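During the second half of the funding period, the structural biology subgroup turned its attention to how the target accommodates small molecules. The most pressing case was adenosine monophosphate, which had performed well in the primary screen but for which no bound structure existed. We therefore specified the complex as follows and requested a full 3D prediction, including the ligand pose.
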Amino acid sequence: MSSEPSFTELGLRPEILRAVAEAGYTTPTPIQQQAIPVVMAGRDVMGGAQTGTGKTAGFGLPILHRLAPQANTSPSPARHPVRALILTPTRELAIQVEESIREYGKYTGLRSTVVYGGVDIKQQLPIVRGGVEILVATPGRLLDHIEHKSVYLGQVEIFVLDEADRMLDMGFIPDIKRIMALLPPAAKRQNLLFSATFSGEIKKLADELLNAPQLIEVARRNTAAETVDQSAYRVPQEDKRALLVHLVRSRNYWQVLCFVRTKHGASRLARQLEKDGLITSAIHGDKTQVARLEALTAFKEGKLQVLVATDVAARGLDIDNLPVVMNYELPHVPEDYIHRIGRTGRAGASGVAISFVDPAEEKHLAEIERMLKKKVLVHQPEDYSLEKATLAPAERRERGARTTRAPRPERSDAARAPRAPRAPRAPAVTPDESPRTTHDDRMREREEAYARNPDQPLQRPVARAFGKAPEVPMLLRKRPALPALLESTPTPQRLTDPAEPVAS
Ligand code: AMP
């Protein structure tokens, strides 16, 4: 017999146990075994847990347990104040966390909802104003609701900061501090902070937020999920696509989540792989929320072979039994590698993570290995010459380069005259070494700045310049530019970090 406590032994309410059983969970995961009793007892928690460990139920179940006695059927919003606030860095994670909370709490009578940026706030206002006990939010959009006076945080009893390290990376800490200032005093609420990694800055934030927290760590800090089989290929950038197609075909891979660094790169690779015959889609911050959810649903249902994603878009994705993650390009931040490969090998299942390493990316591999404190197995080169010879030609980056060139006219004799010797060429440079003044670099910088905070509106000069409305349904357009918001609210303050991109 196992010595692990069952969900029943943890003392959860019957209505929660029923939902847990219906979700198919039989045994609590290690983070659940540790966190559930502590959170049920009302203590603060500093949780070191990787993605895929069952962390959401680890805090979600005891929160539901504690709040369940306050559930009521009154139609009055005043009887449904926000009692638990859960902040997450990305909309995908916010949606997933709220879905889980709703599933676990379906027999409790508590109300929950999720608010995130990138969609019109108007569709969220009536739900939030109607009153919910559990609110899951991304920080930027929560501040928008506060500006609209649709949310009051003065009755929050439990505050959860999920993926705090990612919040920090994305520049959300000033927003979080603004939100914390609107909560009841720290001593009067329960605070839970979860993070996969603990830098000095996260510890500082934890000191400000937590009262005598219980430290719960289920995996060693900065270690990748042990159930993931990690390996790499050394392959030049221009051959990566042929190798990817070769691996997918020769190993019959299905459901490959493939990471690239930029939004443009994601779209381009998805288009190319489609031409190569793999059923592919892409998710990144420039896609509408609807398009992202559609692609994700198709991928989860096994209708896509490859989903190409950027780090931000794929953050927090939970796909049951995802078998393969590919790092088509290595992340520049080693922690992102952990987050990426954490999409597979979840909740004890096994998974495969394969990285493609171009010579210019060797330094990133070395940083990742330093963080992992172990070497990543490098495979012998595979023979992908067949794919290389037969794949559709790569798209050119420059605009206009996609049109096929007219055949060159026959050269006249005069043109065949010997040419003057050419000036020596500048040595070839890799993108990482090139001066930071090219168009591509500027685009990349813009994307990276945006990627740090996807809940901020993205400037889209192109649509405006051509006088065309973007093809996005009205309800799903990005939120209005700031001046319009300020006109409708007496608060003359912009509640975003000045360093973040803001709509014109
Ligand atoms: P999370 O780390 O919260 O994103 O959870 C990762 C995955 O594990 C989700 O698909 C959950 O549905 C699943 N999960 C959570 N707890 C359990 C459990 N006790 N038994 C089996 N699966 C679980």
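Two results from this model are relevant to the next phase. Residues 25, 27-29, 32, 51-57, 318, 320, 346-347 surround adenosine monophosphate (CB under 6 Å). Residues 486 and 493 are 8 Å apart (CA to CA).
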